[in-house]
Specification:
This protein is α/β, with parallel strands linked by helices and about 220 residues long. The chain has 2 domains: about 110 residues; about 90 residues, no CATH class. Helix content is about 40%, strand content about 20%. The chain has 9 helices and 8 strands. The strands form 2 sheets. It has a 5-stranded mixed β-sheet, with no helix packed on it. The protein is globular.
Length: about 220
């Protein structure tokens, strides 16, 4: 990590990957995944953290654009570093190019990882929530409508320990959706770049006084 006052803000879906790599003395705040469901709330909460931060000079976000939740962040007196990717799948796979390669080969893929499963962010958990609210017939209809275009559920293996139960659960999700199951090898490359301060090529560096803009993520 570069020698400057840095702090990380990370979605809880990638907490395990970051904890496995970050220096012990690097401060990090883990944000609730549920904020993704309302991008305006995600932006509002991140902006609040930016405005309240008094120690760090550079804030590194382990996020992507995330449904435009990171569009419009005001740097104020800080420097903001944001991966130039659409969402965390590129981070887990190691690069935006790798994601585009996977998407081009099979666009109808629903991706899962340990963090996504721990945060209960998957089609089966959504079905179980709807089951309690609307009953089985309606819950299944909602799932069928929401996921009818998916052809594959893929677990991204980021080399974390003891993943067997997560692989089994991903198979359960694939069976529920009646689609193919696959495991994909992830990598820590993007996380390593963020932690090493290697930001120029694959990240937006928002200088003090500037604002993150949607067009810069494209």
């Amino acid at each position: 990590m570069m020698n400057r006052k840095i702090k990380l803000f990370c979605c809880k879906t990638m907490m395990d990957e970051v904890e496995a790599m970050k220096p012990a003395d690097l401060p990090v705040e883990y944000m609730e995944y549920a904020l993704h469901r309302t991008p305006d709330k995600l932006r509002e909460e991140l902006q609040k953290r930016i405005d309240e931060e008094e120690e760090a000079e550079t804030l590194v976000f382990v996020y992507g654009l995330c449904s435009r939740g990171l569009d419009g962040l005001k740097a104020r007196d800080k420097t903001l570093v944001i991966p130039r990717v659409h969402d965390c799948i590129s981070l887990l796979l190691g690069s935006r190019d790798r994601y585009e390669e996977e998407f081009g080969a099979d666009p109808g893929t629903y991706y899962l990882s340990k963090g996504w499963i721990d945060q209960k962010a998957d089609p089966y958990q959504e079905y179980m929530e709807n089951l309690d609210k609307y009953g089985e017939e309606n819950a299944r209809w909602i799932s069928q409508q929401a996921y009818q275009h998916y052809k594959r559920v893929a677990f991204i293996d980021t080399n974390l320990p003891e993943l067997e139960e997560y692989l089994d659960y991903t198979k359960k999700v694939a069976d529920f959706l009646q689609v193919e199951y696959q495991e994909i090898q992830g990598t820590s490359d993007f996380f390593q770049q963020l932690l090493n301060g290697d930001w120029q090529q694959n990240c937006l560096v928002i200088l003090p006084g500037q604002v993150s803009e949607y067009k810069d993520f494209l």
